[in-house]
Specification:
Number of strands: 16
Shape: globular
Helix content: 25-40%
Largest sheet: 4 strands, mixed
Radius of gyration: 22 Å
Structural class: alpha+beta
Strand content: 15-25%
Number of helices: 16
Strand order of the largest sheet: 1-8-9-7
């Protein structure tokens, strides 16, 4: 079926997307808690990732929007006494989500709790494949094991997954994987499977991080009582609100980008469910059908999204997991920027480096900046730097952004070892 609605140029769609993600207002003068809250609200979700070659990825979207802010402030909001965020899975990704959205997740938690694992998987059960295959095996081989893990957390929590093993039995690295379909990295120990299932159902939650390892405890001992007592919306109400959140954060998007089941959306939904929810929001006038230049699929514009000029001096180094660019196809279309993360690519096959951050200047992605924090020498290292074709003058803005990032990460030096033409120019600018 052909797309309908007013035609929107790719330039307008790009500006709307940047404005929706908070890049249209300029950075605040101070990186205080109000600015951090606003940045998180605009991002919608902060994806978590274990790679720490530069800094943990969830800190970077806030830095891109706020600039220099205390990372400890985000830690407190996520895992401190006065927490305002909570961890949860959506699709296969772990993320920090505003606590106000916790009631919107309850329908999916209940779906996981109701799931009978030797039967067909419900489309509403959005849990990692390791949990699915693990629970199928544990249900058959170790009945009652999950209840034993929950009892141990109740009596001795908070605990890591390894500490939550009731019998202390662990597979050795040399032992065969019980389920090769999940791969070596995700072939979890039985206690990890059980506690992640309890996490998916909301019976336990993440109390904190110990060297970035999850520490679990009973949800009622972690989250504020008023959050747990908040009225629970119906599944249909929750889904509509989740798509609203995604639409506000994206500005203009296709159905797949809003809530597609592929996992590159804020809150993926089963295809049939997504179609129904989008139809309801369209009928309510909240999603406006539009035709975006060069996009064959139907696009939708959030009814409050605005096309505003983007300051051409605006700049940001974007995490590979920033909501602005985590959908690679959308990034390619909006910015004419083909981007793939390289951390899983063998070194000889990498083109632009290992941990590559796109550099946003104005409303364009103008360069790829490979970055590393050498904490031993207190140095921000730039091994590779590649400009896009016909870039604007990016040397001075990028040098300024690198200085800001080094200060934010408490690094004393900047070393640009990139040998490209732009790399040599930035090295001189940083040293000046």
């Amino acid at each position: 079926m052909a797309a309908v609605g007013d035609e929107v140029s790719v330039g307008v769609a790009r500006r709307v997307a940047l404005g929706a993600q908070g890049f249209g207002d300029g950075r605040p003068r101070r990186g205080d808690v109000r600015a951090v809250r606003k940045a998180i609200g605009r991002a919608g979700v902060l994806q978590l990732d274990s790679v720490n070659v530069l800094t943990r990825s969830h800190y970077l979207p806030v830095f891109a929007r706020v600039g220099n802010y205390p990372r400890e402030m985000l830690d407190k909001l996520a895992w401190g006494r006065g927490r305002e965020l909570f961890e949860y899975f959506w699709g296969h990704k772990a993320a920090l989500i505003p606590l106000t959205n916790y009631p919107l997740m309850r329908w999916r938690m209940r779906a996981a709790e109701r799931q009978v694992w030797d039967e067909e998987l419900s489309p509403d059960v959005g849990v990692p494949w390791s949990v699915v295959t693990g629970m199928r095996r544990l249900t058959a081989e170790r009945p009652g094991y999950v209840e034993q893990v929950l009892k141990l957390v109740t009596e001795k929590g908070p605990l890591t997954a390894g500490e939550a093993s009731p019998d202390g039995v662990r597979r050795k690295r040399t032992d065969p994987d019980p389920d090769p379909t999940t791969g070596r990295m995700w072939n979890w120990q039985d206690s990890k499977i059980a506690i992640e299932y309890l996490f998916c159902t909301g019976q336990v939650t993440i109390a904190g991080r110990r060297h970035f390892e999850r520490v679990y405890d009973l949800t009622e001992r972690v989250l504020p009582a008023d959050v747990l007592a908040a009225p629970e919306p119906t599944a249909d109400e929750a889904r509509r609100e989740l798509v609203r959140i995604a639409a506000r954060g994206l500005g203009i998007a296709t159905a797949k980008e809003l809530c597609g089941a592929s996992g590159q959306a804020h809150y993926p939904l089963p295809t049939a469910t997504a179609r129904q929810v989008i139809g309801e929001l369209k009928d309510a006038g909240e999603l406006i059908p539009v035709r975006v230049e060069g996009v064959n699929q139907q696009s939708y514009r959030w009814h409050e999204a605005k096309d505003r000029p983007i300051d051409q001096n605006a700049r940001a180094l974007l995490s590979p997991f920033d909501p602005l660019i985590w959908n690679r196809d959308r990034t390619h279309h909006l910015f004419d920027f083909f981007y793939r993360i390289s951390i899983y690519t063998p070194a000889p096959q990498r083109i632009h480096g290992y941990y590559v951050l796109p550099f946003l200047l104005g409303d364009r992605l103008v360069a790829r900046v490979d970055l590393k924090a050498d904490r031993r020498t207190s140095t921000l290292v730039v091994p590779t730097l590649t400009a896009e074709p016909n870039p604007p003058d990016l040397v001075a803005p990028l040098a300024t952004e690198l200085r800001l990032m080094a200060a934010w990460l408490d690094l004393e030096h900047i070393q640009v070892t990139a040998t490209s033409r732009v790399g040599r120019a930035v090295a001189q600018a940083v040293a000046a």
